[in-house]
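Late entry, written up from scratch paper. The run itself happened at the end of the previous shift, but nothing got recorded in the book at the time, so transcribing now.
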Amino acid sequence: MYNLLFVDVGNGKKFPTYIHKINVINGDHVRGQMLKGDMRNQIDALIDMLISDRPDKIIFDKTGIGIYFYEQFMIIVYLHYKNTLSVDAFGLITYYDT
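Output as recorded:
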């Protein structure tokens, strides 16, 4: 089980977005999925990954385009997934299903 996701945001086809899965208990790290497509498709794929893998925390690369990606992610989660999950300012994830 990987309880932390690090989102390394790329800025297009030349530099895609990578999701790194990290287990903070034993230090295990997997360079996970590469997200392609426009920003909305990448955010939707990231949210699907959160719902299926259920990590405890998510950390974003908040430099350059990563700032905008983070803001759009938080808006989409709040508007469309507020009954499923929430992410606070520190990246802690709360799931609302049983």
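The mean pLDDT is 88.
(Scratch paper discarded after transcription.)
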